DUF4371 domain-containing protein (Biomphalaria glabrata), 129 residues
Amino acid sequence: MKLQMSLDVRFVDGYCIREDFFGFHPFVSIDALSVSNVIVREYIMYNLDIDKLLGQGYNGSPVMSSIQNYVQARVREKYPESAFVPLASHRLNLVITDLNNVSDIRHAVGVIKKVIYFFRNSSKLERWC
């Protein structure tokens, strides 16, 4: 079984709440140190102002549930304002992870992301969000 984690960020942009998918990140083994390092590394790589990180949430998968307290504690050590909020969308994450293994789905998601990018960056829509 291939171990991977999906990473998303939800943020406020003007008056709009947005959520962006950063991708799937494979693991050789899942432990609190590895997971927390990936989270921090990705936020730094995308040049996010982590001092404004206000919350963190993880799904309730059996693998993650055993280490999520350690992961959120490690992230909170570096960023004390990041409160832990449990997520209820674990089944959706599992379905998305499985669908990512189908090349046609992966291609379709790429096209959808381009369409979303187009509409988000449309000059006529910029005044709203």
